[in-house]
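[recover] target loaded
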């Protein structure tokens, strides 16, 4: 049976991991503003500031008030380990257990904090050491390298451009279901239609089907133009 002290320690550990992964997702190797981080984590700015001070004391981040926060080498390693776990678990849940893609994000968030290294690497081996998850996001390697996709938002494509969907956002299950229903999933070929941009909507073609999507939602879809290399390793 887990004691109250153990439960509190686990919650604190999960909070640390959530902050580090949020910093990575928002800024990668660069700095992230406290306000942006607080919004992403749905906490108050004072709460975020207090946590960042603690993370700085643990040498997981470099934090300067009014100038933002960035990960140290130790913080980056931990963030990428958690992101690796999250994305491998998402793929396992979808491919092996058959969970709908719009459900795997929240479930993986619960697993990522508690899964052992041995179990995680067995999942990786079972899946054939994949390079991307079910949403097209790059999976960090065991040694901490991560692929940076050479892509851009669907909303940024000019009329007449053709591309392939590389990634879709996994943070809104309802939006993810809608994108999937439109055929906007990793690997799908899309073409922006000239006459389709009006009233804040983007008109495009997936296969032979003409579709429309609000331009802000189109920003949640990343695409790679035909002829571009898929990724670079860092």
């Amino acid at each position: 049976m887990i004691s109250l002290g153990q439960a509190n320690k686990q919650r604190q550990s999960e909070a640390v991991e959530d902050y580090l992964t949020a910093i990575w997702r928002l800024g990668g190797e660069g700095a992230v503003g406290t306000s942006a981080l607080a919004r992403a984590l749905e906490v108050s700015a004072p709460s975020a500031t207090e946590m960042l001070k603690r993370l700085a004391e643990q040498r997981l981040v470099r934090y300067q008030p009014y100038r933002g926060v960035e990960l140290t080498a130790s913080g980056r390693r931990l963030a990428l380990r958690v992101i690796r776990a999250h994305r491998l678990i998402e793929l396992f849940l979808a491919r092996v257990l058959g969970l709908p893609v719009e459900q795997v994000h929240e479930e993986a968030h619960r697993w990522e904090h508690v899964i052992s290294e041995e179990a995680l690497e067995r999942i990786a081996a079972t899946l054939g050491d994949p390079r991307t998850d079910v949403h097209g996001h790059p999976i960090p390697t065991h040694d901490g390298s991560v692929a940076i996709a050479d892509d851009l938002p669907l909303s940024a494509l000019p009329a007449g451009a053709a591309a392939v969907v590389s990634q879709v956002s996994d943070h809104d299950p309802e939006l993810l279901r809608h994108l999937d229903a439109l055929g906007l999933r990793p690997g799908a070929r899309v073409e922006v239609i000239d006459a389709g941009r009006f009233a804040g909507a983007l008109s495009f073609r997936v296969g032979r089907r003409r579709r429309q999507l609000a331009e802000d939602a189109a920003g949640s879809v990343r695409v790679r133009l035909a002829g571009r290399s898929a990724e670079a390793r860092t």
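[recover] notes: The first strand starts at residue 61 and ends at 64.
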